[in-house]
Records
---
Amino acid sequence: MMKATIQQITHTNKEQFENLFNYYLYELSAYSQEDIGTEGTFEMEDISPYYRDGRLYPYFITINDKNVGFILVTSPPYVAEAVDYSVQELFVLPKYRGANIAKDAVMQIFKLYSGRYEVGMFKSNLKAVKFWTKLISTLEIPVSVEDGLVEIGGNVLQTCGMKFTVSCESICN
């Protein structure tokens, strides 16, 4: 069984992060309805704050020292009021899915950063909705779920947001 670890993304490995992020945007385009830009890649917002701002917590997800995905966590002022952390993005390359790698990474994040969480996703991204629903119910912690809307490139898309609190008591057993 493969055991995932997390490794902080820094300025020194930013190129690999940016390349991996483009694969993530490609996958997400099935839900975000975004098109590629003139360069043949997805137009990315500036993601450099992830490895420059101390209130952002970017990690590669690794298996045997190989980067197979990433998890990006934000904290105030990048989160809603009454929220301590948000898992903004979670991505695992297709080859490594179904082996609890994303769950391992999320649990490591929860152990590092306990507090009030918010996680948002496209409602049409059934794999993400199922992943988070199953994980939260496995942890047996209360969750509130809110539906919302987001506009991306003129398309109005349905979202699903989950709020829950993670403490060491609920996950360190």
---
Amino acid sequence: MAESFRTTSCASHGHPEFTVVRTEPRLPGTEAWLLSYLESAVATGTRYHPGETIRIGWNLVRVRGRDDGTLGLAERTDAQTWVEQVDRTLRDVWFQREVAAGVGLADHLDFPGEDQQAIVSSCGLESPVLVLARTATKDPEFSGWSVECFEDHAHRSSYYTTLLELAAAMPFAVQFFALPVATTVLIESPEITPTGAIRPHIVDADGVELPPIPGSYLDYLVNGSPTG
């Protein structure tokens, strides 16, 4: 069932209020975070207009005029379709923040853009361990993310794709996209893990694996159940 949530302070700055719609079950604090973000932006002078796009987390959302005089937000449900809701946007930000917090990187979130490019190794997609690596870049079209091959062999060709397209092919990877530059994520496929789900290992710039904080969401991914 769809629920709507509305800002309350935008009108005091001469700006229409926002009404945001979600259709999925709530994740803790997500609506409050988004409403606060919009109110803070308006309070500091930002003005939003129907038809423009803004980036929230790694997602693009489109501003829409609503019949009630407020502004709504629409997100992509696929590459071409926009729907007035913020389900994917809120879900992705929540999981990306939880993953980063699970290794003490909550203050180092670095959101890419969904239309930015990633490099994909053809043979890397066939390995039982998927390697996601992020490097520094000055190219505004490139996210820094690459899918690399874990195996020691002659690698096949690589190709460019957008992060949005990569997310459609491997939705589980989205939760790692906001990790900072110089981070590598080794993701064991469900076929080789004892839990029957993916098991990620986050490695820092020095090649040291960062242990998940006990009781965190990432701890659950790695170990199958919280330990705290």
---
Amino acid sequence: MGDKTDNDVGVQVALRVVDLQRAVRFYQRLLGQRADAVFGPSGLALFVVDQARTRLLLDREAVSGLVCLPVDDVRRRVEELRAEGIVVEAEPTVVCEVADPVHGKGGGHEWRAFVRDTEGNALGLVSAAAVGG
């Protein structure tokens, strides 16, 4: 992928933000990457989530929504977020079996949890883990 803000992105989703800088800090910690672009005067920030070929747009004018984002390990990430004071709406749970977890061979499970970001948006977190993982 060339410029991460170009048209090589599969999907763009937008989430409403009240405090752009606070939201950017939250998503930088959550995704483990810097924002790809921040347009302070217009109240926009972009993150390209490479795993999902998705561009996440933080926008002061967007409506509140629900987005599910991939993370390395839902259970670990929920504990990290909880320690930072983020509201956990639904604890990590197995939602389905997958044939090929992340880079593994054989079966595994997809895990999902729901949290609230710093702007009040519901956010789903998903990851795959090998059986027993």
---
Amino acid sequence: MPGAAATGAPRGALGGLVVRSLTASRHGPSGVALRVAAMATAAIGAALIHRVNDPGVLCPLRAFTGIPCPLCGGTTVFIEMGSGRPVQAVLANPVAFAGAVAVALAPLGWGRRWWALRPGIRAWVLGTALLGSELWQLARLGLLRV
């Protein structure tokens, strides 16, 4: 099967399904639907696991220093979405939430637009987003007074 070796998918019926799904996830509304389904499955799974066993703080930087990283709250975004609480998900980390939305909508052409930007502009956008996320985390956890 063409493409099976490139994706590492096994040959046969299941391998063909995997290859077709990976190909479909790159383009159009079906790609968005597949990505949203995968993300929803992961979010619901994370929420169920968290309900049974709360591991506490997962961020190594925050665990050792008490200072959150810009991506702190990313796991909480998925747990809250999987629990059906979208407002709490956005409040946990708006940048991680926006990133998940961008990944889900990339097959509609947003991914091509992103990669069409000059590298310096992409770096500036990401740097600004990470700085904003860090300030949000510091304020959210009471380490920065606003």
